[in-house]
Amino acid sequence: MKKGAHHTRRAMAGADNAPLSHKQKGQICIRAKEAFDALRKQKLIADGIDFNDWRRDQQACAVDMESLRECVGKDFEPIMMHFENLLGNSDKAFDYALRAETRPVRVAMHHLQQECKAAEALMRNPMGYVRGYLRNSKGGITLEQADAKTVWGCVYMIRRKVQSLRAKAKGGGISAGSTVDDVLDSLGIPAAPAPTAAPAGAKGKPFSQPKPKAARQRPAPPAAPQTGMDTPY
Fold first, then answer.
1. How far apart are the first and last CA of the chain?
2. What is the pLDDT of residues 163-214, one digit of tens each?
């Protein structure tokens, strides 16, 4: 088994199987009530039918689960899509269908953004580090092209990187709240020197260094005239 693979699978399963939030339950109930009132107004729901009983039946049609307490995160989009279809909102229903298809990637991206934000105290541009990792180690793909499994791998990669930097910083006597420059100092990496301004002249203009003059070359002395005695045999 590849290192870290079980963490990725557990994270993906945990995100899909987490209980619905109060906000999600509220959105479902509001949409269900709108659909119930619209259908009853069209005489498609008989009088005397209880709203909550009807809502549970419709939720069972959507995800085979009646109670919202038993529904999990991956059930939210299909339930909302079902009620949007009942309302005749085909565009919104299609949007929820797309969200259901891309939900694992969106959840992973949310966690990656949180990890990168937390890593900014110890790293410069963590998201750029992730993009470079994908470019160099994952066949040159971009973050937008990565699937949920790859994005979750980046989450744990950034987490391990931060843990390593914190361990090195702790060994150098630097606290967890140290700045990036403090961490670089603990690792023996000098900070970039600040740019120095040139000295100002009389009118506030910087002095310009005189350009060195090219050395003049003296002409070669004329060759001595040859006599007949100098002619080789």
1. 91
2. 988 888 777 655 555 555 555 555 555 555 555 555 555 455 555 555 666 6
- Looking at residue 227, the DSSP 8-state letter turns out to be -
Question: Token digits for 164?
Answer: 């390593």
For residue 231, what is the DSSP state?
S
Residues 6+ apart with CB under 8 A from 117: 126
Among candidate residues 123, 11, 13, the one with its CA nearest the CA of residue 133: 123
CA angle 58, 61, 63 (to 5 degrees): 105
Cα 18 to Cα 8, 12, 75, 139: the distances in Å are: 15, 10, 10, 32
- DSSP sequence for 90-108: HHHHHHHHHHHHHHHHHHH
Q: Which of 206, 164, 210 is nearest to 187 (CA)?
A: 164
- Spatial neighbors of 116 by CB under 8 A, at least 6 apart, are 126, 127, 130, 158
**C-alpha–C-alpha distance, residues 34 and 88, integer Å:** 11
